[in-house]
Amino acid sequence: MNKVLKASFIFTGTIIGAGVLGLPYVIEKSGFLIGLVDIVLIGALVLLVSLMLGEVTLRTKNPHQLPGLAEKYIGKEAKHLIAFLSILSIYGALTAYIQGSGDIILYFFDIPSLIAKLLFFIPLATITCFGIKGVEKGEDIFTPLIIIFIFIISLGSLFHFDKANLTKVELSNFFTPMGIIIFAFSGLFAIPQMKEILWFERKNLKKSILIGFSIPFFLYVLFTFSCLGALDGEISEVATISLGKHYGIFFSIFGNLFALFAMATCFISLGNALIEIYNQDYGINKKISFIFAMSPPLIALAGLSTFTEVLSLTGTLFIIPLYILTIYIFCKVKRFGERKPEYELRLPYWLPHLIALFLLFVSILVSFNHKYDSFFIADFLFSICRSIFI
What's the whole-model pTM score? Predict the structure, then answer.
């Protein structure tokens, strides 16, 4: 496989995770047409921010993850803030994936819960030991599988399709699906790794980002369309569960396998990104970085958190602030970059700021429907933006 596809698959594999399984549930509340507008709108914004980060990495001589880039162009305080957000968001995701994958393995095998979680954690943690090479090999195996499985599930759903199920339109719920759509499209941590893979072909980074993003975008639309068409408003938070209940074990097996492989790709990419934060941005020995990265998620083996609780808190508190801070780094790197990039986004001065404000607005709206303290979340995000733009 050539380097462009390898880099693209890392981005695709990082993006496609547990979030896609929840898209039909939240989009059903607004109706497919409204949900499609949300997917296109949020998808375009996330892609633009991803291209911004790609340009930032190309304007930087040495490899860095987000915290290192923040230190170089904003300052040490920003580095520590982004490191805090990045590390906690990745720990939250890794913990959720261990927990969720353990539950899926229990569906197939009657074994103790601890053993099920270890069967997921040990081989994937081992893959991350090999750094970017391990990520390449892991994504080469798992990403094609998740693409195949989501296609199978979507095409299978079309056999039960009823166009009447897509006629619902609830404009009052226009913003309702946006929180989980933002989470489902998140893959920023893969982009610095993509630059490493394309180190001698950096001119292809933009192409890899576009290819890597286009695959999940198309699959998300297809999956949501087919699930909503097959299910008459009776959709669980994990759509494949409803498909399995209504249409048999075929959907249960392929749905669970898809979820397992999707979480595996995310675990590998995010685990390596966390190791690189410790190693590249803080200068910690690689072996110690691996221990720091892999040890805390083991808390999931004790069953202290549920999959949905960890995933929800992670998405609400950490992902959107990282997007906003990435936009600010992009604005700074235009003036203080270290090298001429292989591609350059020519955007109006006001557009990045407008995107940041829109994301902040969405996060506040989502937080008011969140079970955690809404005012704390809104104030937390507003404080970050105020410190950046004022």
Answer: 0.81
